[in-house]
Amino acid sequence: MTENEQEGSRLIDMFDRSISYLRLSLTDQCNLRCLYCTPKIITDKLTNTELLSYEEILRVVQLAVQMGVKKIRLTGGEPLVRHDITTFIRGLAKIDGLEDIRLTTNGVLLADYAEELYQAGIRKLNISLDTLRPDRFREITGGDFFAKVWRGITIAQEMGFAPIKINVVAMNGINDDEFLDFAKLSLTAPYQVRFIEFMPMGKDSTWEKEKYISAETIKNRLETLGPLSSVTTDGMEGPARVFQFTGAVGKIGFISPISHHFCDRCNRLRLTSEGKLRSCLLTDQETDLKTIIRNGGSDRDIQNALRDTILNKPKGHKLNEKKSGNCHGQMSRIGG
Ligand code: SAM
Hints:
Layout: H1 3-8, E1 21-25, H2 54-66, E2 71-75, H3 85-93, E3 100-105, H4 110-120, E4 124-128, H5 134-141, H6 146-159, E5 164-170, H7 179-188, E6 191-197, H8 215-222, E7 228-230, E8 241-245, E9 251-255, E10 268-271, E11 276-278, E12 286-288, H9 289-294, H10 299-311, H11 331-334
Parallel strand pairs: 1-2, 1-10, 2-3, 3-4, 4-5, 5-6, 6-9
Antiparallel strand pairs: 7-8, 8-9, 10-11, 11-12
Helix pairs in contact: 2-10, 4-6
Bound molecules: S-adenosylmethionine.
């Protein structure tokens, strides 16, 4: 392939954003029922045949890597509940040109899987944890697993996973009284504690204006503990703005999809658990890749679908516009 042809096969959208990051939702199933994410009663879970198979996903990833994707995140639902995930990860690790494979997990099964994940080549973990209080953990997630998650985090740290990022969805009136405790964690532990603005996702969303709290407000509160200095991150680190307290071992990150959206720098594409390509988390616009694959689509057909999806990538999400409603897509299927 000539250099020009190679350039022409890159995933570049209409706003000159180069797409190098693919997020894979491996399953819509989850072993928790977080009040801000999964509906309490799931009436329509995907069957095994509705999910893309590992072989199908590996094929898509291979083709996407040829078009410039360098980084993959495995998410869901809860990726660790999908059968035989480490065999799949080993398959991913063999793909030439794929530089970075990361995992987002709620940590419930992390202690059980840490060794296998490490052997399969995963080093970078995002672990969701919205509270440091076991009783509140049960209220937020519906599961009594705080101790298990904490053990998973500790084991992962001891085994050498790095970076470990702790994702905290910031919710006024639900966990805002723990922001300082989370911040203090970064003083002594080598984690990046990341506060994520609560987004109105899913048709049964529990999002309310009163529960939303901006990253700026959180940062101001944290600075009652001391000044936060900005930390420079490399290009692979995504949209978080990262800071550190003086002398701290860990870091603090802010992800502000609502107040400071980062759409102009967005380099992401998503593949949902049911095989839909989605170029924006917060816009309900998808390409049905599974049907293309299962109707015998060629590699070229799949790459054309990837390219067309990217050419239609919206300039930005519209959550801040008065008329736009919530994003109706369910987070667990899309992959948060
Ligand atoms: N089960 C895994 C976990 O809990 O990390 C991966 C899937 S979960 C959907 C991925 C991330 O999305 C989590 O960090 C979760 O906190 C975040 N998330 C889900 N719903 C959200 C919402 N409405 N607003 C902000 N973040 C949300």
